[in-house]
Amino acid sequence: MKPSKSLEPIELLPYIGKWLLLASAVAILVGSASAFFLFALDWATTTRVAHRWLIWLLPMAGFAVGWLYLRFGQQVEAGNNLLIDEIHDPKKIIPLRMAPLVLGGTVLSHLFGASVGREGTAVQMGGALADQLTHVLRLKHEDRRIILMAGISAGFASVFGTPLAGAIFGLEVLAIGRLRYDAILACTVAAIIADQVSLLWGVRHIHYAIPYVPPVALWPLLVMVIAGALFGVTGKVFAESTHRLSGWVKARVSYAPLRPLLGGIVIATTVWFMGADRYIGLGIPTIVAAFQQPLAPYDFAGKMLFTVASLGSGFKGGEVTPLFYIGATLGNALAPLLAMPVPLLAGVGFVAVFAGAANTPIASILMALELFGPNVGVYAAIACVVSYLFSGHSGIYRSQRIGQAKHRGTPEGIKLSELPAYRK
């Protein structure tokens, strides 16, 4: 006898109660860790700016981080890709050491002048901390997948102050073209509460103003298509350049700690003698300036080169904030050429380059709404979707699966890292 449909809401109550409790526990852990990380990052950035000579210690910092990962962190070196793999194919609990290793490695990278971000650190801390509950509570594989996704959402939301984008990011980042709705409750609750927990600890996020958004009309919509294509190609170039440089360095330098040491020498020398300080660290002042005034048209390329060099040589951190920088400054450069307000195109570029490079258009659209307000929604949506399509089957996360191919002829169900073998 089939159960009555009228009882379904009642039968859902234990499920909802379970994930409200689990997601809240994850959120408290991750939100607190993100707050500590952001305070440490602020200290590192302030110290580096006040003592410019610290850039000369970047090679030794790179060696130290490389040695620590070689000695203690080989199991977790894959970072975000490890989390994605574990969600798709659960095998073993992610070691708790991932959290302190990536936190310390990222803070050292910022203190001494590497060009890296913060999203990767927050997401990895979130996943590692959340996964410890799997062991404590003896969760099943199905529940472990969900709790890992909730940790990713909590980390993303709390580090950027965007709970809606964070909730969807945890669902969307796993596979191109598909969302995992089985985790939507856990990811949403974890993202919202983690964001609030970080705010309770005193975290304050930067908000970017777009004072004027033109009415929806043919030309602005066409501009978003053109700009979105450029943003997508830029995200693709960034992702593929980072992966290729990393592969090239690994093939030629077998001892892992030497890779960031050599990369640090190149970066430190270039920054010191070329005065390229604006391209290292998070670059928040330049991002803010991109919404306010015209900047040098090559700023996006400068940031891309330094970030590719930093991540490709083995420094720890994330890609997303550098992508925000690249997108905002590229939008700033395109605005006068396309006869659009500088703040609008800077804001759209901010989210659209990320949408293309991470293959997360929905999370990027929500981020635009949360950061810039609803008026920018239509324009951001078009640019993010076009960017996503134009970035092709490439991305910053090589363990992403192709759930729904962007165009015909591309195999589905494989990792992005496996795609070149199918193209031969």
TrEMBL record:
KW Transmembrane helix (keyword) present: yes
Subcellular location per the Swiss-Prot or TrEMBL entry: Membrane
MF annotations from Gene Ontology: chloride transmembrane transporter activity
Gene3D superfamilies per record: Clc chloride channel
Matches recorded under Pfam families: Voltage_CLC
GO cellular component: membrane
Protein name as catalogued: Voltage-gated chloride channel protein
Native source organism of the sequence: Paludibacterium denitrificans
The organism's taxonomic lineage, starting at the top: Bacteria, Pseudomonadati, Pseudomonadota, Betaproteobacteria, Neisseriales
